[in-house]
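Hi V.,

You were right to ask for the full record rather than a summary. Here it is.
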Amino acid sequence: MSAERPPRLIMVSRGYPPSFDSSSRRPWKLSRYLPAHGIDVTVVTRTAPVDPSAYGIPAEVEILTTDGRRDPDAPPTASPPGTPASGLRGVARRAARRYSPVDSDIGWAMRAMDLASRRARELAAPVWVTSGPPSLLVAALRWQRRRPFPLVADFRDVWPESPGLQAVKASWTLALIRSLERRVLRRAALVTTVSTPWVSLFESKGASRCLEVSNGFDPSDRPTGVVREPSGPVDELLPVAYAGRLESGRRNTAALESALRLLPDTHAFVYYGPDEDRFAEVAGSLGARARYGGQLPLGELLGELSVSTGLVAVGGEGDTWEARGAVPAKIYEYMLTERPILYIGAPDHEAARRVARYPRGHVLDSTADGDAQAAVVSGFVNDGADPGGLDPEARRGLEAVWGYPYLAGRLAEAVRSLGDGR
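Predicted structure:
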């Protein structure tokens, strides 16, 4: 008798190696570790690495590309976000940004879901679709009607509650997005999302089954490359680093700026990320004690961060669903450095709770008085004077809750249960 075929999961994501943006890391790491938990994986994406093994992706992971490209140097088919447009094209792009419930990648999303639904029908497999903006999941709804398959809807962001969407979308467009979200939640066999508050949010909206599969870190990732040598007065100061984005609204940059003023004169603030202009605004009060570090591949970034005094993360503004449940993915990568982490935000928000659970975590309440904030910053700086890392038991404890091998196991168990219920 032949052995029973392992269950398979079709994963659909725009981002995947060789891309290293925020949309690629979650599907990449989950697909890497799912086979070890008895789940075969097919990934449908825009591009794929020439050599998947160079990214730790097992040979049994099937990668299907809608654009047929496996060249890491191949140019993207669409303009990067923020690319200026002029004339009628610019007018159309601005109109779509405000009035369309989907983004400019809806054409690619339809092709991707066509391919994924065909493969799901051939293999009798569920389809996990990770989506920030609604495009991919909207496309999933259409192809699910044509070729029924169990849909696993992965919300790595909230939709109508997102400050980014609220800032640019017309009110009636947001209402349409809410309607589309209700349809996704009603038709999904399983909803996965990244934090406990967002599980509660989607359950309150009617999700029949919702599971937290947070972002995390890969224990095999290590600092690589040569850490840059001091080249001037700023580099000779003790660095405090921040990586990621600095969007106003999604990140409470006013609270960040206030906290940075509390750093001793011996310390510099170094920002690694795409928002160089925004960085200049936030760090303006530090003058010469601020440096823009640019964007680096993960290994090089970890190398730089691992020799810093500590690392800063900042939460959202107010008490919104976005602020309560969002956990910046960089926080988990910060943990790989085993350096102190200073989180700036409300202590009862999910990101603050996770930093507090980290053995070298420090939480600065952005609403506390100046003396209380200064005490937290002082504790963070003093902790950073210790060049050591975590003890092995503490590291294993983190891997047991936020390591991608563990998180893939949570998803694998849920995928098997979908098969049991068919």
